[in-house]
Amino acid sequence: MGDEKALIAVLRGETRPAPPIWLMRQAGRYLPEYRALRAKAGSFLETCYTPSIAAEITLQPIRRFGFDAAILFSDILVVPDALGQKVSFESGSGPKLEPIETPDHLNRLAETFDVERLSPVFETIDRVKSALPADVAFIGFCGAPWTVASYMIAGQGTPDQAPARLFAYRHPDAFARLIDKLVDASIAYLARQIAAGVEVVQLFDTWAGVLPPSEFDKWVVAPLQKIVAGLKEKRRDVPVIAFVRGAGAHLPDLAARLGADGLGLDTSIDPKWAADRVSNNVALQGNLDPLALLAGGESLDRQIDSILRVFEGRPHIFNLGHGILPETPLEHVSRLIERVRVGRR
Question: Is 314 a known active-site residue?
Fold first, then answer.
């Protein structure tokens, strides 16, 4: 076993005695130090664009828990913001955007994506990179085109993304133009994150599971393929993880077609089913239920042990099946890390 950081080694196909661990939304509201800092900061978007604050938030869970990776503190909606769509975050009600309700509304967006409009994000990356422990990997990310487009069309989060689905059915050519714009923006944005210092990137397609198979292939698989290929053309050495929530039975096909180095598993995926059907050439990431982490106790221990058994002997990154819940007790996170790392002793 070489000196390569554990997360990166696993994404290159190595199996570790105990898997590297990080958690989605590990920099967030369950941490008292995060809540204290956010109380003093401005709006959520302003926090994302203030490098000193965003860097501190990124580092907080590393200092407290010693995760094997830090993930950049930002938001998937900085891309539409940089494209000229009005974006704001309202306390208690989530993001608000000026909705794209007709094909003509696409003309409100910038013709080309100016990646340097997100220069505060790259400054954050530079600050974090210089402060990270030598053995901790640094993950950058962006939202996948389908998920980002769903917010852009509806102007907010919705239960089933019906506004975007209807727009895609009624105006397929216009929707394809929006997806293509987001593919190009995502490649440019992630490549610039890599240049600034991130070592791994993750694509979040949070709302992929609402689409029927034909639409899933068109708006989830094809755009992700283009992004992965575009990034690999620029930086083949940087691993890519795809988290396609709701992929379900599509998972083996995604593993074969995307070209990603790792696939995130959501809570609904049976770990054994995934381990049996996905080649060891693709690392699997996940997939503890965030509610089990919140509950703690023997049920948490059983779920952790079950996941570790299933993925033993194959490349695996321990994570949740979705983001950590704000109410999660800190001692449950400490217990999780301790139990996962038993194999390292």
Answer: no
151 is catalytic: yes
Using one digit for the tens of pLDDT, what is the confidence trace for 239-267? 999 999 999 999 999 999 999 999 999 99
Q: How many domains are there within the chain?
A: 1
Task: Name the catalytic one among 16, 29, 177, 341.
Answer: 29
pTM beyond cutoff 0.90: yes
Residue 343 has pLDDT above 70, yes or no: no
Domain that holds residue 99: 6-344
Residue 93 confidence (pLDDT): 74
Q: Provide the pLDDT confidence category of residue 344 given band limits of 50, 70 and 90.
A: very low
- State the CATH number of the domain containing residue 15: 3.20.20.210
In a domain, 1, yes or no: no
Q: Which of 30, 34, 49, 75 is catalytic?
A: 75
Question: Which of 35-49, 194-208, 210-224 is predicted least confidently?
Answer: 35-49
- Residue 104 to residues 87, 99, 101, 107, 278: CA-CA distances in angstroms? 19, 12, 8, 6, 42
Question: Coil, helix or strand for 83?
Answer: coil
